[in-house]
Amino acid sequence: MKLQRKNRLRALSLGAVAVSGALALTACGSDDNGDGGKASGNTSASAGAGSVKCDDAKGQLLADGSSAQKNAIDAWVKAFSQACHVQINYKGAGSGAGVTSFNQGQIAFAGSDSALKPEEVAASKKVCSGGQGIDLPMVGGPIALGYNVPGVDNLVLDAPTIAKIFDAKITKWNDAAIKQLNPGANLPDLKIQAFHRSEDSGTTDNFTKYLIATTPDNWKYSGGKAWQAKGGQAASGSAGVAQGVKQNSGAIGYFELSYAKDITTVSIDTGAKSPVKPSTDSATADIAAAKVVGTGKDLALQLDYKTKADGAYPITLVTYEIVCDKGNKADTLPATKAFLRYIAGEDGQKVLAQNDYAPIPDEIIAKVRTTIEGLS
Amino acid sequence: MDISTTTDVPPPSPQPAVTGQKRTSRGAARPGDRIFLGLSRGSGILLLVVMGAIAVFLTYRASLAISKDDGNFLTTFEWNTNLTPPVFGIAVLAFGTVVSSIVAMVIAVPIAVAIALFLTHYAPRRLSGLIAYVIDLLAAVPSIVYGLWGALILVPHMQGLYGWLDTYLGWTGLFTWNGGAPRAMLTVGILLAIMILPIITNVSREVFRQVPRMHEEAALALGATRWEVVRMSVLPFGRSGVISASMLGLGRALGETMAVATVLSPDYDVHLSLLDPGGGTFAQNIASKFGEATEQGRDALIASGLVLFVITLVVNGAARAIIARRKEYSGANA
C-alpha cells in the first residue's frame, strides 16, 4: 500500500513536471512566432498582413487538397493569421482527396491542380445550397525539367525530344536529336534515366497535358494523374524525383521549380527567339495567354501549351481554390472570404514569387477578385 | 461495497454442491464475477461484430470496384482506375509482394538463426544482453526511417553489388542489370530483411533458450562438440519455433508499406530479374495511389488489400499447420 501510494505521488509529480514543461515549451513556441513576425516585419509578407481586412472573420477554417500549393498556403496562413484571429488548417492530402472532402461538406475550400469535372460540379450542388463549386485560379507554377549530365550546363530540349526521352525512345544522351538541339554541348555516351512520379499526381497530369498538346505523335497516351508510359524510373513525390535526379548520373526528371534547388534545369525550345528557362516570371508570362473556359463564375483556365511567345515557359500548372459561389456555410463564409481576398490581393500574390511560385497575371486575378466579393 | 453485499447475501459455500459445481463452470455467482463475465463476453462478441462489419464493408466496396473493372482483376498488368471504365489487376502486385518477401526471408532467416544461436550458446552473458538490446532497438525504428535510409544510403551504395551480380550471375537471368538506379526488388528485399531480423531473432532466441538442459548435457556427455550439440539437440528442438518466428517476420514483410514505397521504383510489369527497377507490392501500391484516388480508385485499392489479406491468411494457416504437426514442441513462443 505504502509503496503504491509512493508510486502514485511520484506519478503525480512527474505529470506535473510534464504539464508545466509543456506549458513552458508552448510559451516559448508562441514567443518564437511573435519574434518571427517581428523579425520579418520589414519583408512584404508581414507588410501584407498589415493590409489584411478581417471584417468579422473568426474561428477555424478547415481546408484540404493539392500538395503542390501547400507551401504557398502555409506562407499565406502565417501572414493572415497574424492579422486576423482565424485558424486555418490546410492538410495538403492531394487534389483528389481535397475535392472529395469538399463535396462531402467537410471543408470550407479545397485546393486542386485540375479544375472540377462535370460530375464533381454536379456533386457539389448538394453541398452548396442554391449554388455550385467554382474554380478560382490562385497559384501558378513552372514545372521544371531537372537533369544530371556531367559536363553539360545548359541543355536545350523541345517537346518531341522530351516526349521521346520519357517514352524510352531516346535512350542515350548523345542521341542525334539531342545533339541537334545542343550543337555546342559535349554530350556524353551515357544512358538516360528518366524519372517520373510513382504516385498519382497533378504534376504528372499537367506535364503530360503539355506533351499531349504539343506533340501528340510522340506521346500517344491518354494522360491523367497516373504515369502511363513504360520504362524509366519512378520515385515518390516531387522530393523523391529530385533526389533521384541528384543521385544518378544521366538522370532527368520533372518537378515544381521549388524542388530544383541545386539541380540544373532544361531550357525549352518553344519556337520563340531563344529557349526559355523555367522561372516564376516566365510561367506568369505563359499563364497570361491562358483562356478562361469556366462558365458563369467558374474561372477554370485553359493553358496555352503551344505558346511561342518570347520568355513564356510552356510547362506550367495552375492550381485552384474551390469554393461554393452561393450557399457557403454561414459560420465559415466571412473567414473564407477574408482569406481568399487576401491571397488574391496584391500582397498575397507577392508572397508567391518569394516561394518559387508564379503569381496569376493581372487580367485573370482581377476577375478572381470580383468573383470573391460576390461569394455568398 | 463488496463487504455489505456479501453480508446481505448468503455466502455461496452453504449452497448444494451440485449447483456450486455448475456455478464454477459458468463462473458467475457473485456480482463481481457476473459483471466480469458479462464484460469479457461482451468484448468477445463486440470483437466478432466489429471484424464482421469490417469484412462486410470491405468485401462490398471491393465487389463494387471489381464489377466495374474492364480488365481481369487477377491477371491484368495495369493499374489505371481513373479511366472510364477503369482497368486494373493485381498480378504485378501479387508477384512483387511474394518475390520481395521471399528475398527478405532468404536473407534474414539464416542470419537471424545464427544470431540467436550465438546469443544463446556462444556469446558471453554480458555481450549477449547488449546485442539483444541493440536488436530490440532495431525493431523500434519506424519503417519510414528505414525507407529514407534505404533511399538515401542503401540505394546509391548498391551499384557495386548490382554490377558484381550482373557480371558473375547474370547468366541465371535472375541477376541481369541494365545499369538503372538500383531501386529494384533485391534492394527492397535487403531492406525488408533488415526490418524483419529483430522479430525472427528474438523469437528464435527464446525458443533456443528453452531447449532442455538434459538434452544438451546428454549430448555433451557422449562427447559431442558444441556445434554437434547445436545440430543434434538445439536445432531439431527449435525447428518449429523458428518456423513460426519466420512466419511472423514474413507477415511483416508482406505488409510493409512506407519503406517499400520509398525505395522501389514501381511500375506495372513483371520483371524476372531481381535487379530490374520495377514491379510493386500491395501495400506500396495502396500507399502510392491512395492520396489522389477517386471513390472508384479507393474501392479498387480495397479490393487489392483484400487479396493481401487472403495471402497473409494462407501463409499463417500454413505456418500453423506445420507447427501443429510437431506436437512435442511446447509453444515456447507463446
From TrEMBL, chain A:
Residues 57-346 form the PBP domain. It holds the Pfam family PBP_like_2. GO terms for cellular component: ATP-binding cassette (ABC) transporter complex. SUPFAM superfamilies: Periplasmic binding protein-like II (SSF53850). Phosphate binds at residues 66-68, 95, 113, 201-203. Keywords: Phosphate transport, Signal, Transport. GO terms for biological process: phosphate ion transmembrane transport. Residues 1-24 form the signal peptide. GO terms for molecular function: phosphate ion binding. InterPro entries: ABC_phos-bd_PstS (IPR005673), PBP_domain (IPR024370), Phosphate-bind_PstS (IPR050962). Belongs to the PstS family. This is Phosphate-binding protein. It comes from Streptomyces dangxiongensis. The gene is pstS.
UniProtKB/TrEMBL annotation, chain B:
The keyword ATP-binding does not apply. It comes from the Bacteria. One of its GO terms (cellular component) is plasma membrane. The chain crosses the membrane at residues 44-66, 86-119, 131-155, 184-204, 300-319. GO terms for biological process: phosphate ion transport. It is a multi-pass membrane protein. One of its GO terms (molecular function) is phosphate transmembrane transporter activity. The keyword Transmembrane applies. PANTHER family: PHOSPHATE TRANSPORT SYSTEM PERMEASE PROTEIN PST, PHOSPHATE TRANSPORT SYSTEM PERMEASE PROTEIN PSTC. NCBIfam families: phosphate_pstC. Part of the binding-protein-dependent transport system for phosphate; probably responsible for the translocation of the substrate across the membrane. Belongs to the binding-protein-dependent transport system permease family. CysTW subfamily. This is Phosphate transport system permease protein. It comes from Streptomyces dangxiongensis. The lineage of its organism: Bacteria, Bacillati, Actinomycetota, Actinomycetes, Kitasatosporales.
